[in-house]
Each structure stands twice: as structure tokens, then as C-alpha cells.
Design a protein that fits this description.
Elements: E1 17-18, H1 31-43, E2 47-58, E3 61-72, E4 77-81, E5 87-91, E6 99-102, E7 111-113, H2 118-121, H3 134-140, E8 155-163, E9 166-174, E10 180-184, H4 191-198, H5 203-208, E11 222-226, E12 232-238, E13 244-251, E14 254-266
Antiparallel strand pairs: 1-8, 2-3, 2-14, 3-4, 4-5, 5-6, 6-7, 8-9, 9-12, 10-11, 12-13, 13-14
Amino acid sequence: MNSRHLVITGFFWAGSVVQASSREPVEPISTQQLITRLSSAIQSLKTLRCLVDAEERIGRSYTPGLTLMKLSFSPLKVYIKNQKNIEILYVTGQNNNDAWVYPGSFPYITLSLNPTGSLMRKGQHHTVLQAGFGTIADLLGNPNGQSSTVFTRSFRYAGDTLAQGQPAYILRSDYPQFRYITYKAGPNETIHSIANRFGCGEYRILERNSLSIDSKLTEGQALQVPNSYGRRTVLVISAKTSLPTSVTVYDDGGLYEKYTFLNVVPNQLIPAAEFTKDYQGYKL
């Protein structure tokens, strides 16, 4: 079930980064200033509406598409819809902390599913709980941009550009040390805790070791684990909002994932009714 992709007729624009020799200049900025602004802008979000043009490598193929997202933070509320008319609503503290999922096909019955469980993680790099800029925040470290790993410290300001017709900065990490290593699980370790230890995300551990997110690890079990999130990561950041307009990640297999954030509307009140099952137009 791929919850990241939605095609909206007449409302799609690729939003790719455009290099241009003639454009309005952006103010000079250092790497640390850029990371701090980006981290602070993400951490300061109260609400977010956007479209996400996504491309994820699943196995040896790529699945493109566009996802409609509405998010409210503290507590987290998420509504997303994809091109198969699958709708997902997650509201912290409601429905036993399960997500409501309308499958968009027979039997057309809304399900309650664990947002981090195997059914909702199948064919997904990320969980619904990471919708928006959650993964980017994880890449950067703490809210002040003070990174704690060699990989996160590898980000550097790499110039300015135009993104979606607006001035933007490029923040880039080149990490040629990226590779898979053999790691033996310790007592009570989980796929989630190992992914956090290496900052690599859960998906590639699952894929490389033919595991499901529900797999139980035994002490001493040998796993192939990436030693970081990517070999090269390119973030394009709006000079106006300090929020990402795109993130592209490469690993040893080439393009791993790319997300372009379109029609981003931050911190504009989203009525509480839009995070309820009965909101007009929802099929939940």
C-alpha cells in the first residue's frame, strides 16, 4: 500500500530545481547558518499543507507519483491521499493510536491499522508518522543544527539556485564512505533501534535482510546494515521560508529516493474538522 502518491489533474508541476545564470541574489550564508535556519523552520512548524512529488526505489524499480498531505503538529495529526484513492488519517491519541485507512478498492471498508506495522510499511521507505519533513529533520540532528554523526556533519552549503521560480540554497552531503557493514544484534535490539543507531532508516535494513518490520531479532543475529543514510544527499531550501523544496538521496545503487515539496503552505490554520473521519469529501 503506497501512501505517498497522488495524481491531481491540472494541478501538477514538476517543481524541479532550475539552475539559472540570471536571478535575484540571495543573501550570503554559511553552512551552519543554513542548517540552523532549516532545522529551526522545521521544528517551528505548527501546520503544513503540501503536495509531495515522490520517487522511491522499491527493489529494482521506481514508483513515481504525487501525494496530498495535511499535517498538524503537537499533537501530530496527518491526512494523506494517493492516486489510488487510498486515504489515511492518523490522529495522536485516537483510534487506539491506529490509523484509519480507506483502501480505495474492494471491500471499500475503512480499516484500523498500526501506522508502523507491516501492512502500512509494505513498499514504503517511511511511515505516515514521518510525513512532511520528519526524515529531513532526522538527517540534520537536533533543532539547533548541531549534528552528532560524521554523516550529518558532512553537509555543506553548495551554492544558490532557483527552485519553483524562487531563490533557494543548496545544502549537500557527499559521503563516499557509504557502505553496508555486518552488524550483530545486541540483547533486546530491534530494527528500529539499529536504524536509529546508524541513522540509515529502517527500509534498507528490511530490504537487504529480507525482513518485515515485525521481525524479531535474536541476540547475535548478523545483519547487513548501511553505515549512514546515503552516499550523496542534496537538499534545496527556500530562501524565503527556510523550508525544503526538495531532497534527493543517492546510495550505492544510484537514486534511492527523491521528494519535491510543492504548494507548501506552512503555519496556516487547518480547521480541526479536516482531521476527522466525517469531514466532507473524505471516504473514511
